[in-house]
Task: inverse folding
């Protein structure tokens, strides 16, 4: 298989994780990506709404490979009377998957405050028995407590915090042997894999066997990341996580090829081409189906009316939309399949 630059991939993963990019808050991560593309030497264009499309070279029958850089998170719904924050989700974040998480509150004036997602009441020792079994709910019994000496709505508003401010969760990256644990493996690990494949092309002066674009989207988590594509694109390949579970084939050490998600079956012929590339390159892969709550940016492009074939691949990943875990081998196999399908 293709040599995998583990050091570069993990460094890019951690660099991307270090930038808060809850969906809609794309500017800083986009600027970082542009600087990396310029360092690697790729031409690129920036979409008006936010997103970067890099030209990987090649001619004819254009393929888009897409990975997204937006994260799920929270937004301030209102400032509570006691100075805490009532919040609502941005993307598919559920209360039980973020309780007691450290967060950063980004105001529209550029201020950043830290805090914690808490139950209300927040201490088990002084909570009535019947309240201990009530499920956490953003509307009624979950709030963000600021790391500031505030006890009223007026004091919190005096900090510049208001409805509509963005709240990013701490990713908490940890490497344990070859396992990688962090929030936002979905999809910053896949974006790092795509960058690593692009670095391999440049380092070895290789050109794909067709025109290839790398599309780093910023709105996948809310469903419109790749709703616009460059002219002439015929195929789209999403690189996204493959959730593991009791009924899944996906494995953190392997790359999954998606047969179907909650919206559509993936294109039969294109998926067969991806599978054939995996077999020819000796990639450790599985086929899998992801229902009932999963989709990729490929679905968005199809729904937008583009005449495209679509397929998707990605590393097996546990605990999706929570504190996720994958394995270096899963990233390595995803990387190898990307390069094999590009025909380099």
Result:
């Amino acid at each position: 298989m293709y040599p995998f630059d583990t050091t570069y991939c993990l460094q890019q993963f951690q660099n991307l994780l270090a930038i808060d990019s809850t969906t809609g808050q794309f500017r800083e991560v986009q600027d970082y990506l542009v600087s990396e593309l310029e360092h690697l030497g790729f031409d690129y264009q920036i979409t008006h709404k936010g997103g970067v499309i890099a030209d990987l070279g090649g001619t004819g029958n254009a393929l888009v490979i897409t990975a997204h850089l937006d994260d799920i998170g929270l937004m301030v719904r209102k400032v509570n009377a006691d100075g805490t924050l009532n919040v609502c989700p941005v993307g598919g974040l559920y209360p039980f998957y973020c309780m007691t998480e450290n967060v950063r509150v980004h105001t529209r004036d550029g201020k950043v405050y830290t805090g914690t997602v808490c139950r209300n009441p927040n201490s088990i020792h002084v909570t009535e028995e019947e309240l201990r079994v009530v499920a956490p709910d953003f509307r009624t019994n979950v709030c963000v407590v600021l790391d500031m000496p505030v006890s009223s709505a007026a004091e919190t508003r005096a900090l510049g915090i208001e409805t509509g401010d963005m709240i990013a969760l701490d990713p908490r990256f940890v490497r344990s042997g070859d396992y990688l644990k962090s929030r936002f493996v979905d999809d910053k690990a896949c974006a790092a894999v795509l960058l690593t494949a692009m670095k391999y092309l440049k380092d070895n002066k290789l050109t794909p066997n067709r025109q290839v674009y790398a599309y780093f989207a910023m709105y996948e988590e809310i469903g419109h990341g790749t709703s616009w594509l460059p002219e002439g694109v015929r195929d789209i390949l999403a690189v996204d996580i493959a959730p593991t579970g009791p009924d899944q084939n996906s494995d953190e050490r392997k790359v999954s090829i998606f047969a179907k998600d909650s919206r559509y079956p993936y294109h039969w012929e294109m998926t067969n081409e991806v599978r054939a590339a995996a077999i020819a390159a000796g990639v450790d892969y599985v086929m899998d189906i992801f229902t009932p709550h999963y989709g990729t940016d490929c679905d968005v492009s199809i729904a937008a009316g583009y005449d495209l074939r679509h397929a998707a691949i990605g590393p097996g990943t546990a605990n999706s939309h929570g504190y996720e875990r994958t394995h270096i081998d899963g990233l390595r196999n995803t990387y190898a399949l990307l390069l094999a399908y590009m025909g380099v």
The longest helix spans residues 185-203. The chain has a mean pLDDT of 97.
